[in-house]
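Quick one, T. Sequence first:
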Amino acid sequence: MIALSRMCDYKHHWQDSFVGGVIGLIFAYICYRQHYPPLANTACHKPYVSLRVPASLKKEERPTADSAPSLPLEGITEGPV
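C-alpha cells:
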C-alpha cells in the first residue's frame, strides 16, 4: 500500500516499487529459511528448534528451570586463589 501511494503521488517510479518488493521477498525468504525447513517439507510450519527435540522426551519429562540441577555454590571463592 505504501508503494502504491508513493507511485500515485509521483514520488517513485513503478520500477522502484517493483524492485523494492522483490528485494523484500528475497530477504523475507532468507530470514524464513534460517528458522524453518523448506516450504516443500511436510513440517514447514515447525521451526528447526522444535524439530531437534528427540521424540523420546515427552512434555512431562522435559526439564524445566525449576527442576534443573544447579551447580553447588559451596567452596567457590571470588578472586584469585
